[in-house]
Design goal:
5 domains; 34 helices; metal ion binding; 20% strand
Length: 1028
C-alpha cells in the first residue's frame, strides 16, 4: 500500500504557523544565571606534584571537605573494600559498579593483571556499601565500565570486553572481545566513561596520545588519534566515531534534548559535541572553516579535569539543578557551571565551586548521579596524580587507598527502585519520570527484558494524543530500538507541538542506515522549524546522510542562521561540507547557480576538500569573484593540492594577476605547499617562477646591514628554504652573505646555512665549519652550525664535526657528540676523541648522546661506552643536585616577572601557548604557576625525565642521506609534517623516508641546565609562577 504524504508546502505551513512552545524541562535555560564565582589565588597546598601532607583516614579526609549550606558528604566505600577507583556506573538495580586499578599507571604484563571491576551495594539502606562483589578480576588497568543485562561491558588493556555472568552469581564467568586492540602506550586516558545513550549504543571516550584503529564485526574500521569520542553496538557489530579531536576527554553526560556533553582534561572543561565535529587538537591543522565551536570562554585553572555530570535529578535544590559538576584532580575540588542557550548554542557560566577539599590527596577522577539523586565521587586518593610530571614508578604513588563519597541535600531522601523487578506497567509509567536517568534506565529495561512484548504498550503511548512529551520521547526510542516504529507513526508525531518531541523524532530518523526521499523531505522541513534545536538535529542528520536535493536548503539555512548560534552554523556548514565531499554530489554543488554571497561560502567549504571538482571550482571562483586576502592564499593552496601539474601554469598566472597587494612570494608559498602535498614533480613553470623570486629577494637583501622588518624576515625564510629545496646554485653567494651577517636574526643565518648544505654540501662544509669553531660567535649559533653541517652524513662532515670538538665549550661538545653518536662511523670517532682527551667521558651520559650512541651500536662500541662511563656519577644525580641548588637559591620577586616573561618569549613561546598567545607544539601553559617551584624547575632543567608519548620525537633518515628530527604533527596528503626545536613546522614526503625511529627524548631543549644561570632561572620561575 502506498502512503500519500501532504505536500511540502502544506507541511511547512503547519510547522511554521504553530504557536512556538518551550520544550519540556525543569528549568528555563533561555537566560544565563548570574555567576556566583569569585576569583581567588589557588592555595599553595595544591601546587606540589608529590603532596607532602600526611595520609589521612576517610574520617579525617571527610572533615576537610567544604560544601554549600544544607549539603552533606558521607563515605560510601573505602579501602580495604576497594582500591583505586577510576570509573563508575549504576545498574538497573541501583548498584554501583566500579573499575579500580592498583597497576596504574604502569600496565601489567600480559596475563598478569590484578585489577578488577566490583559491584557495590547498600543492602541495609544505611548509606554505605555493605555488600561488595568482585565481578571481574585479573584485569589490566580497567577504566570504562557499563553494566548491561547479564553482565557488563568494560575496558581492560587492550580491549573492550563483554563480560558475561551466565549463572547469576554476580561474577563474570565468560568474556568476549567486542573491540580492539586499542593502542595503550599512554595509560592515563585510554577507553573511558562508557554510557548508554538514548540510541541504546554504548558511547565512550578515547584518551590522550594513543592512536587506535578498531572495527566492529562488520569490518568497517575507525581510526582515532588521541582525544575522540565514539560509540559501538552492544554486540560489537559496529563502531562509529561521534567526534574527532580534543586532547584527553574524560567525562560525559546527556541532557533532555539528547545533546552529548564531554569534559576534556587539557582544553576546556565542557564541550557540547556536534555529531562528527572536528575539534582542536595538538598537531592538527585547522580547517579553513575553523574547528568546531566551544561553549565556554573560561577554564577551571587546571588541565586535570576528570568526570562530568549534568544534574537533571531533583534531590538537590532547584538552584543546584541543571548544573554541570566537574572534577579537578589537581586543585582537589568539584566545580559547578550553569548553562543557557542562544538558539541551539549553549553558553556556560561559572558558579562558585561546589566542593573544595583541604586534603591535597583528594583526587575526584569520576562523578556520577546515583538513582537516589546523590552525587557520587570516585576519589583516587593519592599524593601523586600526574602522569608525566612525576615518574611512573615513583615509590610514593599510593596503590591501595581509594574512597567513594556521596553528596546529598539534607532532608530530601529518595528511595532507590530495583527496576530489574519492575513490571511492564511500572516501567511504562517510569519512562515519563521527571528524572532523565530514570527514564533512560526504564527504557533500557523495556527493550532488554521485555523486548517485543512491550511493543503494544509503547504503541499505545505513541498513538495517544495526550501522552506526556517525555514519555512519548522514550516510547519512540524504545520502538525504534525494537525495530517496531513504522513510518506512519513517525508521520503522526513529527508535527508535535513540543519541540522536545520533534528533536528526538529527528534524532531517531537519523539513526537509519539510509534515508529515502520522504526522510529528506521531512529533514528539509525541519531545517526551517521554529525551534533551533530541531534545526540543529536536522543539520546533524545531514552530516551522515547526503542527497543532491539538500544542497540548496542547507545553504539557505546556513545564511539565515545568526552568527550567535555558532553550533547550528557549524552543523549546517559541516553538513554542506559532507555533501560537497560526496563524489556524486560534488558536481551538483559546483555547477549550481550561486549568488555572490553563496558562492563565497561554497568556495570556503571546497577549500577544505581535496578533489579535482573542488580545485576547478576554486580556480574559477578566484578568477571571477572578489576574494579577501585572508582567503586568497588558502584557496591557492587548496587548488594546487588537486590540480594536475599541467594546469599549475594557469594557477600561477592567476596568482600573479589577482590580489596585487599580496607579495608574489607569498602566493608562491601557497601554490608550493599545495603541490608538494601531491608528491609529484614540479612543472618547469613553477620552478622557474620560484627561482626568479628567490634570486630577486636574496639580491635585494644582499649587503643590507639594517635591521629587518617582519616582511623582510618572511621573504628570507621563503628564499632560503626554496633555494635549498630546489638546489639553486645561483643563490650560493647571497646565502653565504646571509650566514656571514652578524646583524641578521640567527634564524635567518641558520636557514641560509641549511640551504647551503642542501645545495652543495661538500663545498660549503668548510665555510660552515669556520663559523662553528669561531669562539667569537654566540654559542647557540655555533651549535646550530654544527646541526646544519650534519644534515648530510659523510666521512668528511663527521671529521669536520669531530674537529670542532677540540677546545669547544661543553654545550657545543654535547651537540656535536649527539650528532656523531647518531652515525656508525661517528660512534667510533666520538670514542676516539674522548680517549684522546678532547671531550669528557661524562658527555656520553647526556640523554640525547647516550640514546643515539646505543641505538645500533656494535658489541665493541657498547663495551667502549661501558668502560668509559662505569665509574661516573649518573647524570640523573648530578641534575637532581642542580635542581635542588636552583630551588634553594630561588628568590621570589615581582620585579623579575617582566624579565622572566622576556626569557619565556625568547625560548618557550614558539612552542607553548598561554591563553591565545604562542605556539601549539607543546602543552598549553595556562595555570602553570599552580605546579609550584619544584615541579617547574624539574621540567625546565630536566625535561626528559618524564615525557608524554604525544611529545616524543622521531628521527627520519631520508633516502638522499639527510637526517631530520622532530615532533610528529600530522599527515597532509603525501607529506609527513613535523616540528623542530624552534617550533617551526617542516614537511617531508613520505616517499623520501628511508627509516623512521622513535626517540626517548622530547622536543624541549635539554640545555637549560648549562645555559641558564641562577639569576635567569629566578627570572623565568617568577614569571611562570605568576601564571595562575
Amino acid at each position: 500500500m502506498k502512503i500519500h504524504f501532504p505536500t511540502a508546502g502544506l507541511l511547512l505551513l503547519l510547522v511554521c504557523c504553530q504557536q512556538p512552545r518551550q520544550f519540556t524541562q525543569s528549568a528555563d535555560l533561555s537566560e544565563p544565571r548570574p555567576s556566583t564565582y569569585v576569583e581567588e589565588d589557588p592555595d599553595p597546598i595544591y601546587s606540589a606534584h608529590v603532596r607532602t601532607s600526611p595520609f589521612q583516614t576517610p574520617e579525617e579526609e571527610k572533615a576537610d571537605f567544604i560544601l554549600p549550606p544544607g549539603f552533606e558528604v558521607t563515605l560510601f566505600a573505602a579501602e580495604p573494600d576497594i582500591t583505586k577507583p577510576i570509573n563508575m556506573a549504576f545498574d538497573e538495580k541501583g548498584r554501583l559498579w566500579v573499575s579500580q586499578s592498583s597497576e596504574y599507571p604502569i600496565k601489567a604484563g600480559e596475563g598478569q593483571g590484578r585489577d578488577r571491576i566490583s559491584i557495590l551495594e547498600d543492602s541495609n539502606k544505611d548509606g554505605r556499601a555493605d555488600k561488595i562483589t568482585h565481578f571481574a578480576e585479573d584485569l589490566n588497568i580497567p577504566i570504562g565500565v557499563q553494566p548491561v543485562k547479564g553482565g557488563a561491558i568494560g575496558f581492560s588493556i587492550p580491549h573492550v570486553y563483554r563480560f558475561y555472568d551466565t549463572d547469576g552469581d554476580d561474577k563474570a564467568d565468560k568474556r568476549e572481545i567486542l573491540l580492539g586492540p586499542f593502542e595503550t602506550r599512554d595509560t592515563h586516558g585510554m577507553v573511558n566513561n562508557l554510557f548508554r545513550g538514548f540510541d541504546g549504543w554504548i558511547h565512550a571516550s578515547h584518551g590522550f596520545s594513543n592512536v587506535s584503529t578498531v572495527a566492529g564485526k562488520d569490518g568497517d574500521s575507525i581510526r582515532m588519534v588521541s582525544g575522540n569520542t565514539f560509540r559501538f553496538a552492544m554486540d560489537g557489530s559496529r563502531a562509529e566515531k561521534t567526534s574527532d579531536g580534543r586532547i584527553n576527554p574524560f567525562g560525559s553526560d546527556l541532557d533532555e534534548l539528547g545533546y552529548h556533553y564531554s569534559a576534556d582534561c587539557h582544553t576546556l572543561p565542557i564541550y557540547q559535541l556536534i555529531r562528527e565535529g572536528n575539534y582542536t587538537q595538538w598537531g592538527k591543522k585547522e580547517p579553513n572553516r575553523g574547528f568546531a565551536p566551544t561553549m565556554m570562554d573560561y577554564g577551571l585553572n587546571s588541565t586535570a579535569l576528570s568526570g562530568l555530570v549534568y544534574y537533571t535529578d531533583t534531590q538537590f535544590p532547584e538552584a543546584y539543578q541543571n548544573s554541570f559538576y566537574s572534577g579537578d584532580v589537581v586543585t582537589c575540588r568539584i566545580s559547578r557551571s550553569t548553562m543557557s542557550f542562544n538558539g541551539s548554542t549553549p553558553q556556560a557560566t561559572r558558579q562558585a565551586d561546589f566542593l573544595v577539599s583541604q586534603d591535597p590527596w583528594f583526587r575526584p577522577v569520576d562523578i556520577k548521579v546515583g538513582p537516589d539523586g546523590a552525587l557520587y565521587i570516585a576519589d583516587f586518593y593519592n599524593p601523586i596524580i600526574g602522569h608525566y610530571e612525576v615518574p611512573l614508578d615513583h615509590p610514593d604513588r599510593d596503590r591501595n587507598s581509594g574512597r567513594i563519597w556521596k553528596i546529598t541535600y539534607r532532608g530530601q531522601q529518595k528511595t532507590v527502585t530495583d527496576w530489574s523487578r519492575a513490571s511492564m506497567a511500572r516501567l511504562i509509567e517510569a519512562i515519563g519520570n521527571p528524572v532523565l536517568q530514570t527514564r533512560l534506565v526504564a527504557t533500557d529495561e523495556l527493550v532488554d527484558r521485555y523486548g517485543s512484548e512491550a511493543t503494544a504498550a509503547l504503541q499505545k503511548i505513541v498513538n495517544h494524543r495526550r501522552s506526556p512529551s517525555r514519555q512519548l520521547v522514550q516510547a519512540l526510542w524504545a520502538l525504534s530500538r525494537l525495530e517496531a516504529l513504522p513510518k506512519k507513526t513517525l508521520e503522526k508525531t513529527r508535527l508535535h507541538p513540543d519541540p522536545l518531541v520533534r528533536v528526538h523524532l529527528h534524532r531517531i530518523l537519523g539513526e537509519q542506515t539510509k534515508f529515502d526521499s520522504t526522510d529528506y523531505e521531512w529533514t528539509k522541513e525541519a531545517l526551517v522549524d521554529n525551534s533551533p534545536h530541531v534545526r540543529r538535529v536536522a543539520a546533524e542528520n545531514l552530516i551522515r546522510h547526503q542527497d543532491r536535493s539538500m544542497v540548496r536548503p542547507l545553504m539557505q539555512a546556513f545564511l539565515e542562521t545568526p552568527e550567535s548560534d555558532s553550533h547550528l552554523r557549524y552543523a549546517l556548514q559541516h553538513a554542506f561540507y559532507h555533501h560537497a565531499s560526496h563524489p556524486e554530489i560534488a558536481n551538483t554543488v559546483a555547477s549550481e547557480s550561486w549568488n555572490e554571497e553563496e558562492a563565497a561560502e561554497v568556495a570556503l567549504v571546497f577549500s577544505d576538500i581535496t578533489s579535482r571538482v573542488s580545485a576547478a571550482f576554486l580556480v574559477a571562483h578566484l578568477r571571477t569573484n572578489p576574494v579577501s586576502e585572508d582567503r586568497f592564499l588558502p584557496y591557492l593552496t587548496a587548488a594546487a593540492q588537486a590540480l594536475p601539474a599541467s594546469k599549475i601554469r594557469g594557477l600561477i598566472q592567476l596568482a600573479q594577476q589577482k590580489q596585487p597587494g599580496l607579495p608574489l612570494y607569498r602566493k608562491a608559498i601557497a601554490i608550493n605547499a599545495g603541490l608538494t602535498q601531491q608528491d609529484v614533480e614540479w612543472p618547469e613553470e613553477l620552478i622557474t617562477w620560484n627561482r626568479s623570486l628567490c634570486e630577486q629577494l636574496l639580491e635585494k637583501q644582499a649587503g643590507n646591514s639594517s635591521s629587518l622588518n617582519e616582511a623582510q624576515i618572511d621573504e628570507l625564510h621563503y628564499a632560503t628554504g626554496v633555494s635549498g629545496m630546489l638546489r639553486l646554485r645561483s643563490t650560493i653567494p647571497q646565502l653565504r652573505q646571509l650566514v656571514s651577517g652578524p646583524y641578521l636574526l640567527e634564524e635567518i643565518r641558520v636557514a641560509a646555512a641549511r640551504a647551503l648544505m642542501e645545495i652543495d654540501p661538500e663545498t660549503q662544509l668548510t665555510f660552515l665549519q669556520d663559523w662553528m669553531t669561531d669562539p667569537e660567535n654566540a654559542l647557540d649559533f655555533r651549535r646550530k652550525m654544527a646541526q646544519s653541517m650534519a644534515l648530510f652524513s659523510s666521512s668528511r662532515s663527521l671529521d669536520a664535526l669531530g674537529e670542532g670538538m677540540r677546545h669547544a665549550p661543553i654545550e657545543l661538545q654535547e651537540t656535536i657528540a649527539a650528532l656523531l653518536a647518531a652515525e656508525d662511523e661517528g660512534k667510533d670517532l666520538l670514542i676516539r676523541l674522548i680517549r684522546e682527551g678532547m671531550a669528557p667521558a661524562r658527555i656520553l651520559q647526556r640523554r640525547n648522546v647516550e640514546e643515539n650512541f646505543l641505538s645500533g651500536a656494535s658489541s665493541a662500541q657498547q663495551e667502549s661506552f661501558q668502560a668509559l662511563t662505569e665509574n661516573l656519577l649518573p647524570i640523573s644525580q648530578e641534575r637532581e643536585q642542580l635542581i635542588a641548588e636552583r630551588v634553594e637559591n630561588f628568590e621570589q620577586s615581582a620585579a623579575q616577572v617582566l624579565t622572566g616573561r622576556s626569557l619565556y618569549e625568547q625560548h618557550c613561546s614558539m612552542c607553548h601557548r598561554i591563553e591565545e598567545d604562542g605556539g601549539m607544539i607543546g602543552p598549553q601553559l595556562d595555570g602553570i604557576g599552580n605546579w609550584g617551584l619544584s615541579a617547574l624547575a624539574t621540567k625546565v632543567l630536566d625535561p626528559n625525565r618524564n615525557i608524554s608519548e604525544n611529545f616524543r620525537t622521531y628521527t627520519l633518515k631520508l633516502k638522499n642521506g639527510q637526517t631530520r628530527s622532530g615532533l610528529f604533527r600530522r599527515e597532509e596528503g603525501q607529506l609527513l609534517v613535523m616540528a623542530d626545536q624552534t617550533g617551526q613546522e617542516f614537511s617531508v614526503p613520505k616517499s623520501a623516508i628511508a627509516e623512521q625511529t622513535a626517540s626517548t627524548i622530547t622536543l624541549m631543549p635539554d640545555y637549560f641546565s648549562t645555559t641558564m644561570n641562577q639569576e635567569q632561572f629566578n627570572d623565568l620561575m617568577n614569571y611562570l609562577l605568576s601564571l595562575r
